[in-house]
Amino acid sequence: MTKPTIHIEQGSLEKTAADAIIVNLFKGVTHPGGATGAVDAALSGAISELIAGGDLSGKLGETAVLYPRGAIPAKRVIVVGLGPADDFSPEGVREAAAAAVLRAQSLGASSVATIVHGAGIGGMNPEDAAQATVEGTMLALYRYESPLSRTTDSPPPDVSAFTIVEFSPKKLPAITAGARAGEIIAHSVYLTRTLVNLPSNIATPAYIAETAQQMCAENGLSCRVLSEEEMRAEGMNVLLAVTQGATQPAQFIIMEHNPADAPNADTPMVLVGKGVAFDTGGYSLKTRTGMPGMHGDMAGGAAVIGTMRAVAQLNLPLRVIGLVPTVENVISATAYKPNDVFVAKNGVSVEIISTDAEGRLILADALCYAATLNPAVVVDVATLTGGKMFALGARTSALFANDGKLHEQLQDAAEKVSEPVWRLPLDPAYDRQLKSPIADLKNTGGRHASSITAARFLHHFIGEHPWAHIDMASGEFYEPGPNHTPRKYIPKGATGTPVRTLVEFLRRWK
Predict the structure, then answer these.
(1) Measured between alpha carbons, how far is 366 from 206 in angstroms, rounded to an integer?
(2) Quick one: DSSP state of residue 86?
(3) Do 123 and 206 sit in the same domain of this protein?
(4) Distances (CA, A) of 438 to 276, 339, 356, 368, 472
(5) Residue 17's domain spans which residues?
(6) Is 341 exposed, middle or buried (CB count within 10 Å of its CB: 0-12, 13-18, 19+)?
(7) Assessment of whether the complete model's pTM goes beyond 0.85
(8) Per-residue pLDDT, 150
(9) What is the pLDDT of residue 152?
């Protein structure tokens, strides 16, 4: 796929030449104003006629297409609904932008121009509105292209140029900044989505590490990858237990953004992402229906890689470190087994009850490593438990935090970007389910409160700093159907969750 080039221009949309121009309409509006009104006037009231005839209501995501026939330079005019004005939000902008550009793409438009949705009578901050407009547009246009497929299906044509046209010169700096941020974040989500979509025979631990190294080299980040020998020297024995049956060696990826003026140079922000490149469940074998899709069990790690790209390109004034332990969990003569006991980097011994509870094992040693970095805060993200899926479904991630302020900051960031999270308890009383007669802990507390006991397990490896754990299980993929909330800017396949939440959280950090 061709990533569209983003342009910002000062001028009047009705005077812009493009294959399609996009204007908008709030629900209930009978006489359009602003840029939509200007285009309507240039078309001798054609948009007003659609409204009066009941063909256009302004419902969120609704589109109508008009053909100017020489009245204006554009070949098509697309009017997109914004929904009710009193219920308008950045999510409405993303949905409307996505619906409009997908309609333009379906009509073969290569060049598309638009106003910023919400920056006029919508009352939104122009920078936020521009960011949401670009995010909705770019994320909707993402298309995974399999490197191994020989399909002859014709993909929709690419939108190669996307222009934001703003009439007010005063708004241009804010709109330019917002559009630039939206483009960076969307391309970082692209990277995450593609990593998650790739089959595991391509996206092996080594491939994931090489992708991270290449991304870091391109964006001025430092990157170090620990070998299994180096991990063993670090005492990462529970991580290595997971990989001891695999032929693909484990990789421990360390990415760092460290600007010269970072106020937190001595206390970095640390992100940790689970990177299980494929999960069979090991000897605690998954079912035949539960195993497909397990190439996405590295979605947390992919999200951290994508987030680090955005951190670098946005040049955030923070020292940020991303850690991605990546392994395969497979069966072989050397694979770890139930009732085996291993000792983590911090000296905590763990009895293996289920080899399918492997993600918390690799995170345990990664969290121990994070604690050695004197972090200001640690946030880990993982497709960790089926219990989260049954509790909250696919749309909402479970959030656990040992710090109220950190919880509020992540909650606010997730709400802003519409990647919802819900806080679950981190009550030490649940530790009773993790008691082992032969070790300090069992690696699973059973089916009851399984996402909570998994978080409690991780809590034993975090150190004394603020920490949050995001369990995004079943949110890594979007599959049309009743179990998933449809959104125009998330196509079928990998979602890229929660890159936008993590980036927003870091951008807000003070």
Answers:
(1) 17
(2) G
(3) no
(4) 27, 9, 20, 22, 31
(5) 5-146+158-165
(6) middle
(7) yes
(8) 67
(9) 60
